[in-house]
Amino acid sequence: MEEAAKRYLEKKENEFDIETVPRRLFEVLVSQGYHLHLIEPGRIICSLTVPTRLLGDNSLHGGATATMVDLIGSAVLYTHGVPASGVSVEINISYLDSAYAGEEIEVEAKTLLLGKAIGVVSVELRKKNTGKIIAHGRHSKYLVGSSKM
């Protein structure tokens, strides 16, 4: 069992110079291709056709989903006029269904709380054609520069 874990973590296939990977690679991979449908204070709705680059085995990778919760959850805080989206304190995601390459998904982010030092948002990913929830996330952020802590 330990050998299987070691092989998994020490994969050598597709080796490349890790130092040549762009900074914030996950953001670059996940932040392309959105279509914005609604932006208002405290709410964003956008959609994305799932590209193959975001797949795990055959479906939308959980890490890509988590990055969407992070990025779009952070973006909704900007709709309130905050100067920076802050630093993540907590991200919680419930994975409820799968999405596949070529499938259109809708992402809705809502502000739940915007305090002096903390912002909390909800982000839901749904299948656009059925409304079925793929994932539901909650993201809490410390709003840097807004507190005297």
From TrEMBL:
It comes from the Eukaryota. It catalyses: a fatty acyl-CoA + H2O = a fatty acid + CoA + H(+). One of its GO terms (molecular function) is fatty acyl-CoA hydrolase activity. Residues 59-132 form the Thioesterase domain. Keywords: Acetylation, Cytoplasm, Cytoskeleton, Hydrolase, Lipid metabolism, Mitochondrion, Nucleus. GO terms for cellular component: cytosol; mitochondrion; nucleus; spindle. Pfam families: 4HBT (PF03061). Coiled coil: none annotated. CDD domains: PaaI_thioesterase (cd03443). GO terms for biological process: lipid metabolic process. It is found in: Cytoplasm, Cytoskeleton, Spindle; Cytoplasm, Cytosol; Mitochondrion; Nucleus. The keyword ATP-binding does not apply. NCBIfam families: unchar_dom_1. Belongs to the thioesterase PaaI family. Catalyzes the hydrolysis of acyl-CoAs into free fatty acids and coenzyme A (CoASH), regulating their respective intracellular levels. Has acyl-CoA thioesterase activity towards medium (C12) and long-chain (C18) fatty acyl-CoA substrates. Can also hydrolyze 3-hydroxyphenylacetyl-CoA and 3,4-dihydroxyphenylacetyl-CoA (in vitro). May play a role in controlling adaptive thermogenesis. Homotetramer. Interacts with PCTP. This is Acyl-coenzyme A thioesterase 13. It comes from Cannabis sativa (Hemp). The gene is LOC115718752.
